[in-house]
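User: Let's play a game. I give you a shape written as tokens, and you guess the letters that built it. Ready? Here's round one.
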């Protein structure tokens, strides 16, 4: 019961937050909307968006390059997780599956994890796929190499 109430309150808070930040139809081509505090770095938001695009757009011919790009953008524990062999799918495992996605918005939290909202469509064998919105909990950190993504995980509580 408590979890249902918490989920309902979290959903309501997200809906209120999204309604005021200018995010529109996720399947309509348009610019990404950001909701960021005044002191949030545009570079930190940009690295989250770049990571999200690499995470959501791949096919058998591009998956190895996309994985290398994710490694370049990651740091710390996330980078080590992505380096593990089981996190590196090959073209044979993917087959004709493709993923297309775009960033709908980034809700930045000062000194905390941000929420990255994507619209993603997974298709197989060239057939029209199923599209859905996804929310990721993400965090960017400044490193000696510039801004990198230190946390990236699906928001499974919503």
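Assistant: Ready! My guess for every position:
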């Amino acid at each position: 019961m408590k979890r249902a109430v918490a989920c309902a309150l979290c959903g309501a808070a997200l809906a209120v937050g999204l309604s005021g930040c200018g995010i529109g139809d996720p399947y309509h081509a348009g610019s990404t909307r950001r909701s960021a505090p005044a002191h949030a770095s545009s570079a930190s938001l940009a690295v989250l968006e770049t990571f999200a695009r690499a995470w959501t757009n791949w096919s058998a011919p591009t998956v190895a390059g996309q994985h290398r790009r994710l490694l370049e953008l990651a740091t710390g524990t996330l980078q080590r997780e992505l380096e593990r062999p089981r996190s590196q799918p090959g073209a044979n495992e993917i087959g004709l599956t493709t993923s297309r996605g775009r960033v709908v918005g980034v809700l930045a939290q000062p000194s905390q994890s941000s929420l990255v909202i994507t619209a993603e469509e997974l298709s197989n064998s060239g057939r029209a796929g199923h599209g859905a919105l996804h929310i990721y909990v993400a965090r960017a950190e400044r490193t000696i190499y510039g801004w990198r993504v230190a946390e990236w995980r699906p928001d499974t509580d919503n």
